[in-house]
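Changelog-adjacent note: as of this version, every example in the card shows the full chain rather than a window. The one below runs 409 residues end to end.
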Amino acid sequence: MKAIILKWNQISLVKRILAGIIAGIILALIVPGATGVGLFGTLFVSALKAVAPVLVLFLVMSAISNHAKGRQTNMKSILVLYGISTFLAGLVAVIASFIFPVSLSLVTGSTDLTPPEGILEVLRTLLLQVVDNPVNALMKANYIGILAWAILLGLALRSAKEGTKSLLTNVSDAVSQIVKWVIQLAPFGIMGLVFESITANGLASLLDYGKLLLLLVGCMLFIALVVNPLIVYARLRKNPYPLVLTCLRESGITAFFTRSSAANIPINMRLCEKLKLNPDTYSVSIPLGATINMAGAAVTISVLTLAAVHTLGIQVDFGTALILSILSAIAAAGASGVAGGSLLLIPLACSLFGISNDIAMQVVGVGYIIGVLQDSCETALNSSSDVLFTATAEYAKKRKEENATIAKA
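Full-length structure tokens:
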């Protein structure tokens, strides 16, 4: 038995996950009544969600408290890349919606949902998350609050004794080891998630919304395979696709099935470690990216809003469309702070065109119907680009240093 486990662990994690996907599909088709299989997926996602907040807290605290003066990080560059990608995602979605207009057969939406009343409410929610009680932030996986406390405690502990810093490092390493154990179970968790998705949702209900789904997924693929690589190329001046495809393969696949940027934080941390990135940087940029790097959400907000606009026959000029791109980028950054995620920010964007809340909530209802694929693709794009831009900023810094060295020589 031990030999079998060793052989299994020697296979790359990506290949094991692909085996889990195939097994989940086969089981869903052959024994759809075996509901116990889905439990593997539930347990896997729950384990990731449970360990991620603790991991972020101690990783960030340890990294900042042990940070030597004069050692540079790339957070400013990473934040710029996050912002550019999210804005361009909204812009691409707007342009695509004009080229391929989609109309909706509006249905009755949920009446118990409460969308934000304006962009100020989204920003207010984010600010309140910053000053959240640390225990409450950990319990509710409020990563903005966790980051704020981790940064403050890390800064306060920079003058602590070496023994205290060593203890923080040891705890951080211990939590990271637990994460590695959980990630080794990913193939079984993905198998359960695939099984549950196919048996519970199927694809028949999505046929009527195929055109809308095609536009959404097409935009996200365009961002992932064209826009993001162009951004990376602009910074690195070399073929971006090896890095892009690595991030999509090793981060995007798990994010697609877990449908949670928070749950994918440990996966991204592991990938950053594999890429030999600076822990001082990625211990902050990855959890921050899971909150504010939301290109997929910007696409969802823009496409569904303009679908409502086309359905109602509202004429939109370029200036208003550009404002929608900016609004969707800002709103997307606050998506994680609003119950319901990016879909509940659609009424906020619809208000830009004078669309009533009743109709906007019907659009939200359509969003939930197609949410099986829409949310999966959105999360895969968001989460994989967290690692992509963290790596890009670091590689760009190294390239700049190498060029400076050559120039001096």
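Structural remarks: Residues 49 and 401 are 38 Å apart (CA to CA).
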